[in-house]
Amino acid sequence: MTDGRYRIGDLLVDPGTGTVARGDRRLQLPPLSFALLVAVLRRAPDVVKRGELIDEVWNGNVVSDETLSQRVRLLREALEDDSGAPRYLETVRGWGYRAALPVEKMGGGAPSSTAVAVLPFANLGGRLEDEPLCQGLAEEIISALSHVDGLQVIARTSSAAVSRLGLDVREAGRRLSAGSIVEGSVRRSGDRVRVTVQLVETTGGGHLWSDRYDRELQDVLELEDEIAEAVARRLRSDLATGGLRRRRRRADPAAYEAYLQGRHYFHGVGGPEGMKRAAACLERSIELDPSFAPAFDALAELHWYLGFFGAVAPRDAFGQSLLQPAVRQQRADRGPNPYSRRVTVELPGTRHLAVDLRPVVVQLLLEH
């Protein structure tokens, strides 16, 4: 990770905010595609080996060369790049990838007092199956903080990349242009978790706040919001935290774990196999707890992603994505085992969607 932003051709890439802009237009890049782009720009003009990219972008997860190649194709599509005449990403056959044009490294400014980075939580138990829980805690706290007006939250991919470097908090804050950092650890024992979290200011490395929580796994949703609110209030006593939505409900532990695993395969692994596993985990979460809204939302995001990047016919994928809120409401209204019921959902470009809702399987029937 280097300081500041990058300019390549007509693109401005900002690792701190996780954005790519072409003039006034912001390009939508999934987290893995963004991490891949930044990894190449950071090393410009050098070539980045395929193995090095896999280690950095997938954070040590075992993925195939084909997964990397697919991610490169998706990145090029999002950037409207051409592999035959590349403007941004050039393939060096038998070696790896490099920036196709000179990269201007623009340098970063002083850390902002209203900018906060949330680092991945350390897994003190050491069990690989608990990694999605540790990653999920950080991601959900980031999501909750992003609803607070006046607070700039550093992108997850940037925070994760800096975390892997093992830097002192002062250096990490400088590289992320963040005035404070949230870090913590998780130790799990059965269905109980102990979460230790601290907020550190990056100028001098002093502790602003810390706490320890012992909770049941089913209470983690509420805990995430509780931590986010404590962080927001500690950063600025006058900060309006009305944007934080406290989820005062318990989650079925097995459904919550399946949801975290789905998010892990979606954002952390990617590729065709990762997407397949993500969908299976999220559908399993919904089956276990038909009222668990985050699983429906994540599944809708997954369908949108597959359609946007052409992995599934856009008509089918976007239909499923728009359908999830209706399915969620149907499940909430009728309980975990609703009778089959036909509902209609309006979609642009179609007369209507006829949907057969069942306990586990949703059958989509398009009628013109």
What does this 3D model show about the protein?
- With 368 residues, the protein is α+β, with helices and mostly antiparallel strands.
- The protein is 42% helix and 24% strand.
- Strands 9, 10, 11, 12, 13 and 14 form a 6-stranded mixed beta sheet that branches.
- Helix 4 crosses helix 8 (253-269), helix 8 (253-269) runs parallel beside helix 10 (293-308) and helix 9 runs antiparallel to helix 10.
- The model is unreliable at 329-368 (pLDDT under 50).
Low-confidence sequence ranges: 329-368
> What string, H for helix and E for strand, traces the elements in order?
EEEEHEHHEEEEEHEHHEEEHHHHHEEE
Tally the helices.
11
Q: Helical content, roughly?
A: 40-55%
Average per-residue pLDDT, rounded, comes to 77
From the spread of the alpha carbons, the general shape counts as globular
- The number of E-state strands comes to 17
Distance between the termini: 50 Å
Task: Provide a concise account of the structure shown.
The protein is α+β, with helices and mostly antiparallel strands. It contains 11 helices and 17 strands.
Layout of helices and strands:
Elements lengths: L4 E4 L2 E4 L4 E4 L2 E3 L3 H12 L5 E2 H8 L7 H15 L9 E4 L3 E4 L3 E5 L4 E7 L3 E2 L7 H15 L6 E2 L2 H8 L5 H8 L1 E12 L2 E10 L5 E10 L3 H16 L17 H17 L1 H18 L4 H16 L5 H21 L6 E5 L6 E6 L4 E6 L1
Parallel strand pairs: 9-11, 9-12, 10-12
Antiparallel strand pairs: 1-2, 1-8, 2-3, 3-4, 5-7, 6-7, 12-13, 13-14, 15-16, 16-17
Helix pairs in contact: 1-3, 1-5, 4-7, 4-8, 8-9, 8-10, 9-10, 10-11
